[in-house]
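Purpose: get a first structural picture of the assembly so the mutagenesis plan has something to point at.
Setup: two entries, given in the order below. No constraints added.
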Amino acid sequence: MKAYDSVQASRAKGRPTALTYIANLIDGFVELHGDRRFGDDPAVVAGLGWLAGMPVTVIGIEKGSDTPDKVRRNFGSANPEGYRKALRQMKLAEKFRRPVLCLVDTSGAFCGIGAEERGQGQAIAENMYELMTLKTPVLSVVIGEGGSGGALALAVADEVWMLQDAYYSVISPEGAASILWKDAKRAKEAAESLRLTAKDLFEFGVIERIVDPADVKQKGMPSLKAALFEALSRYSALSDGELLEGRYAKFRKIGGTEA
Amino acid sequence: MLTRNLFRRPRNKLEDAGANSMARPEIPGQLYASCPNCKAMNPAEELSRHADVCPKCQHHFRVSARRRIALTADENTFQELWPTLRGVNPIAFPDYDKKLVSAREQSNEVEAVVVGECQIGGIPACLFAMEPSFMMGSMGTAVGEKIARLFEYALEKSLPVVGFCVSGGARMQEGILSLMQMAKTTGAVKRHSDAGNLYVAVLTDPTTGGVTASFAMEGDITISEPGALIGFAGPRVIEQTIRQKLAEGFQRAEFVLEKGFVDMICDRRDLTDRIAGLLKLHRREAQE
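Result (structure tokens, whole complex):
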């Protein structure tokens, strides 16, 4: 599979969104709204439920189903209040030492006037800052688009998984192409250069597991559910110190420098 | 998290020339420097006395990492750490090797940040200063590594960190590895903070993208220089997204102060005293 095929597959119509995953993986999902600061961002869905009998917090970036829903959810581009809503749920999860499952699917954090006025950069920074030492297991799955900082704000986790046909990148291939060659149409080339596929990221040690797209086409997503349950159970058994040391080390070692 | 397209293009040729002449006040023998804002010709010696702020219109010239350190650290106290640590081309990005060579020639630095230990107003502190003429201070793996190491070093020695940010964000040419530096630096800042150490972040023009969305916005105290562009998305990206023109002053330091995301704006000529005063307030002995 070529890099740009993953990009297109990630954006394809009818691809399972965060709510599809929640419907399949989580029993008795209770959605919880609002950031208690400004508002409720429909681009972020958050709540509680059962994963194979384990109480979990689930936070997903939701692109929407039909056109009105997509518009309402800003096509999955979150505003600062979306990230702060996620943070509120993360802190609640920590309080009850409930594992957190994040479902990432965004072309990027929203680039708008209001987003800047309300501190988009600060909101993303704060999520990473708190996630780094959140005393409960966190697992993130990039289910579609992993658009830069807007994705990373929900992906500072003990493990990051990725659909085999998803992408995760510092910049969109279109953005890279327009900077490099002043031509967004050369996105295909840029996608190859950016090394943004699941396979690339696995090789770089950025992600721990590649999820087979066939696994999420089955009703109930049984193999993904079992894998998530196993991983979250494993991290739940660790002490706070072991958990946070491992999370720090995971990101600390990512580099590519010489002395 | 773009790199170069996050900043506005120079509005005219004069400004363009001004941007390129940012190192001018430091070059001996260069007698005058033109202000990119008011176009006044400033004698280099006078400009230097004003910490590279135009005495006529108060425009803050963009300054190099070395100049920043000279303006901030007490004389002869700065000890650079990991001076040779450099980025490679970890994802074999086309033409990046060439770009690194020219960035090194242009900036006289091996990477886009200089880090070390010094004294500020007689108080020991760790210091980082980003280098705007090195690929617009963009953060790749070397920048991330140096910043993370500095915070770890400061944690080990219980020292405060003062950091001067100037950056277009994460460096596109190192792909996902650049993005991960946001998490890596954040982790180191958090550990340093959790141990009760002070971090003063100084945001200078421009601070955008993945740097804004990580260590630039994680200070205990955040200071900005007047007029600095501070934001997540760059103005042109926002204009393209919302298809409308942005108001004058949008994302400038004064706007960001009004919105509540920086603690204060400080003229560069007062900045070192201000930082020294803050360090003094946080001295552990002062609390005993």
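Residues 175-194 of chain B form the longest helix (20 residues).
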